[in-house]
Fold these 2 entries.
Entry 1:
Amino acid sequence: MNPIRRGFARVLTAGAAVAVLALCTGGADAQQGPIKIGMSLSQTGGVAAAGKQLLVAVQMWKDDVNAKGGLLGRQIELVTYDDQSNPSNVPGLYTKLITVDRVDLVLGPYATNMVAPAIPVLMQHNKTTISMLALGANSQFHYNKYFTMIATGPDPKTAFSDGFFEIAKEQKPAPRTVAIVAADAEFAQNAADGARANAKKHGFNIVYDKAYPPPTADFAPVVRAVQAANPDIVFQGAYPPDTVGFIRAMHEIGFKPKMYGGALVGLYITPIKMQLGPLVNGVVVSETFINAPTLQFPGLADVMKRYQALAKNAGTDLIGIGYVPFGYAAGQVLGAAVTACKCLDHEKIANFIRSNEHPTVVGNVRYGKDGEWAESRILTTQFLGVVKPGDVSEFTDPKKEIVLAPAKYKTGDMVYPFEKALKK
């Protein structure tokens, strides 16, 4: 080859190598600075109690990684915004993260209501994310770079009621009728859709099926309407405020169906459980994670011990078991993907997440259709023997909330009917 051509070819080859490196790392300037990870997490508004825990969890993961040298030899910097628990804020915040802040990676947001409006923005910009505790948010979009950190499995809408109806069917005498009541908002309605499917599957007659507006403050009329339908069991899809409102109204009115519970997000939050105290006894909850001897995965105890030491000064949930492990695990999966790919290419990161099993503090996670977990692990639990309102120690005792299903994680037997459980 002509020496000039050989030299030109070497220049082209070197140029191509630099171009590939720039695509993976964002260029030399990006190598010298931190890797920026952007997200919105609710710090105010209706779901702030969960959003605050998740933010502390992600910050803990970031600090742990940075202490070990960072990702790709670079420190991690978090760029976060408060979406104020308002879905309409989310598209603008993620657009800003991507186009103005120019973050390298994305996590979140939290909650179905916030995640659903974020997905079109992520699709437009071809970004990978791991959302936190969103129920079926990608079922309409089928976006292949979306993943979620919640154990709902391949059928997310039914996952929050599978165990509830299976356990109800096992009781003697078996209940026959069900009321389905839910907030008129994304997560609760997805849970209600699943409850309808499970009611039909297990041969229950639906005698009440209505939604209430999320701002509802007085639940006495709602509870009276459900009571008038005389259902054997009641399944509810609820956020924190309506979880409290409905349970209090049930006790004030004296409504005692044979079984009550469902997707009650409020009962994942320690201050709400402390506030309700013995009023939670007998309630059957579709839980994502609890403190149980059957759910002790590598690294979990250390993360929870360190979180709980931070919680009081951080002004967050004192226990945090329902949310913190998932926030930390989302960081673990993203970090593992970046490390394995040795770059920040969102296509490669998504392919790695999709194709591998990921050891995390919530157990080994493998992804399937629509970025949901390949296998469901939603827990069906029951509160029993809670005595003192306002006492956090009531909810650190694994005997006060037992796992009924799945069988692999079971720690106790159902107390039925609801009235009997109230006296337990």
Entry 2:
Amino acid sequence: MGNPEIDAAPASAPILILDGVEAVYDDIIIALRGVSLEVAQGGVVALLGANGAGKSTTLKAISGLLEAEGGRVTAGAIRLDGAAAHQRPARDLARAGVVQVLEGRHCFPHFTVEENLIAGALARGTRGQALRADLDGVYDLFPRLRRLRGSVAGYISGGEQQMVAIGRALMGHPRLLLLDEPSMGLAPQVTEEIFQIVRALNRDHGVSILLAEQNARQALRHADHGYVLENGRVVASGTAAELAARPDIRAFYLGVGGGRAQAIRSRGQRAPAHRDDQDAGPAPVRPDSAIV
């Protein structure tokens, strides 16, 4: 395509391509400025960036959920299996296997764990023995949920709620799983458990995964490839190992290395503040705020 950010992507056939995607909220607030990336079939791709960089907006543009928040894609293309996807309704994308786990878990707090999981199968209309088999598959991945199946979701731990959210997504038989900040608010041990399960989903079940995450250290440990977003632009990309070895990434996102590192700067002027990741809690120091 001649785009350097896409040219660096994995060589295997992509399930997802974003090419120069731009998006706005309320026709005023610029959220994405020419985002280009790929997810290979069976690949795990990390989308890194500080709070407000555009990670959640990118995922919602892919899943078709952007319009529900007053946003829309204004330019560029999103292709799923080579076919245009950015104008398809979210329900059609879900049936095609594009499933998003939203930031903040979003369990139904008054439903039991099992009722939450069953809700994930509604779009497919799964019933009877097939539904039972899907539930057993989720319980095999998350043994803790089997013990908690009758518990009310609002009263279980944050890590357990994240497992419910991912399990509910799996009930939709995803081919492409979009995970938004799965480690947010979780203890390190629980975060490691979640990431191990995510990697197992990819390794054992062939699910392609696009993972938006501020915890760059964890994300790069489990991803094959990564992109860094700043101000709605892709400013760096490469294999996970390449990104983890870059001094600027190590300084700004991994907290490794001393001295003044060269900032990862996007070209052109800073985009106006936008609504992406607005519930993610206190923002870490942004890379470009370290420059004086």
